[in-house]
Write a structure and sequence with these properties.
This protein has 398 residues and is an alpha/beta fold. It has helices spanning 16-27, 52-60, 64-70, 110-121, 172-176, 243-254, 301-321, 328-357, 361-376, 384-392, and strands at residues 3-5, 9-12, 32-35, 49-50, 72-74, 76-81, 87-91, 105-107, 127-130, 134-141, 144-151, 154-160, 162-165, 182-196, 207-211, 217-221, 227-235, 263-276, 281-282, 285-287, 293-294. The protein has one domain (3-182, 274-392): FAD/NAD(P)-binding domain (3-Layer(bba) Sandwich). The strands form 4 sheets. The chain has an 8-stranded mixed sheet, with helices on both faces. The structure holds flavin-adenine dinucleotide.
């Protein structure tokens, strides 16, 4: 089989992390080719809320104006205790420092984000996006990486100088490198649903945590239309094929009025994990986003940290390719992003999950008390800038 060389970097996976890495590299005049197994950007219900750290990266990459024309800006978060009916509304801006440039979260589906970035990427001459290209094998030496790729025209071999594996939680690139994905899988199954229902008329904020040991849920508005993401958990031993049949029982517990009609637009069951690779770099192959680390989605930490990976990786890899830095900066990227996962991302996501489904009534009351104190005395709130800085980690040395 003949090998087709491609210039620059091959990026595997047209999710938000693959697209943002590609755009970051392309903005530095690095040729990029993005290979995606699917026929188009995947639309399954996943990330929908972007924190100021993500908004900042979107601005740096020149896509924020487009995101603002589509997304819903939100500053409110609501903690609701199902059992007692207690509702605590928090204005998130009160815990932000006055100099915060992006004092809001943005709400819209991650496939829309990927689409916006693709639009910008494909306007750049040396950037290509190839759908229906599935990476099935990988070999590398000191000068480059050869990928075997299944395409509609049969199997092809493609050689590039560098490869970025941004191919999601079930990453083929990670598997082909033989890297373990250490960590654990949570015992429960999560169900992400998109539903039209007038939550806003019943005092729900655009972002809500409904705390309950059984019927916990995350309820978030998906954008400007009145479509909402309701994510809840269920026992993973229940038959997966009957998830849809059980949705009305869960909705009955979560929805404030049973008289309103609702329409389920999408529903998707999935297992959640806390896992990370031992290294984000193997020779000329680098990993980013869910391919490198996964956490439960309760606090929206997954894509938030994947977006920072994308920004950091584009910086260090551009510097190496342009001869402005030695390869040790790739090692820094790997160690720092891995440290942030273990010390910040996964512990924060785990704490969000605990707060949602805490079984101990005393701890549940203490959680509600914390949110009440934040709502009543914003000065007592931990500065969200601290968490943002922790998620961003140390700056790349380039
Ligand atoms: C229900 C749910 C809600 C979530 N909510 C949030 C949230 O609010 N905020 C947040 O920050 N995070 C959230 N997350 C996490 C977030 O969705 C992920 O972190 C994010 O999708 C990771 O993006 P990615 O680009 O790394 O991977 P993906 O989005 O999974 O993209 C990987 C791409 O690679 C492609 N691919 C796979 N294998 C190959 C191959 N061999 N060859 C070529 N292409 C391949 C896939 O088809 C896919 O398109 C949520 C997750 C779930 C499940």
């Amino acid at each position: 089989m003949s090998v087709s060389p491609i210039e620059g970097v091959a990026i595997i996976g047209a999710g938000p992390v693959g697209f943002l890495t590609a755009l970051g590299l392309a903005r530095n005049s690095i040729p990029v080719t993005l290979l995606e197994a699917g026929p188009a950007i995947a639309e399954s219900p996943r990330a929908a809320v972007y924190f100021p750290t993500t908004v900042k990266v979107l601005d740096q990459l020149g896509v924020l104006d487009d995101a603002l024309t589509i997304g819903l800006k939100n500053i409110y978060f609501c903690f609701r205790v199902l059992e007692t009916g207690e509702i605590v509304m928090v204005d998130t801006t009160t815990s932000m420092p006055p100099e915060e440039r992006y004092p809001y979260n943005l709400h819209f589906g991650q496939h829309i984000l990927a689409g916006i970035v693709m639009d910008h990427l494909t306007r750049i001459a040396d950037a290509q996006v190839w759908f229906n290209h599935t990476v099935v094998d990988l070999e590398q030496n000191g000068s480059g990486v050869t990928l075997s790729v299944d395409t509609p025209d049969g199997r092809k071999e493609i050689r590039s100088d560098w490869v970025v594996g941004a191919d999601g939680a079930n990453s083929s690139v990670r598997r082909l490198l033989g890297l373990p994905f250490d960590g654990h899988t949570w015992p429960d199954r999560f169900v992400a649903t998109n539903v039209s229902y007038p939550f806003d008329q019943y005092g729900f904020a655009p972002a809500n945590m409904v705390a309950d040991p059984v019927n916990w849920a995350v309820v978030a508005r998906l954008g400007r239309e009145n479509l909402w993401r309701v994510t809840y958990g269920e026992d993973a031993s229940l038959p997966e094929g009957e998830v849809r049949r059980r949705i009305p029982d869960h909705y009955r517990a979560i929805m404030p009025s049973q008289d309103e009609m609702y329409e389920i637009v999408a529903a998707s069951p999935y297992r959640v994990h806390e896992r990370c690779v031992p290294t984000f770099r193997d020779g000329r192959v680098l990993l980013a986003g869910d391919a490198a680390h996964v956490c439960n989605p309760c606090g929206g930490m997954g894509l938030t940290s994947g977006v920072i990976d994308a920004k950091a990786l584009a910086q260090v890899l551009s510097a190496v390719i342009l001869g402005k830095a030695g390869e040790r900066v790739l090692g820094f990227y790997s160690e720092e992003r891995r440290r942030v996962f273990h010390e910040v991302t996964s512990p924060v996501a785990t704490e969000f999950k605990r707060r949602l489904s805490e079984k101990d009534p005393e701890k549940r009351r203490a959680d509600a008390r914390i949110f009440r104190e934040i709502a009543e005395n914003p000065k007592a709130a931990p500065q969200s800038a601290l968490l943002s800085a922790q998620i961003e980690g140390r700056p790349m040395p380039v």
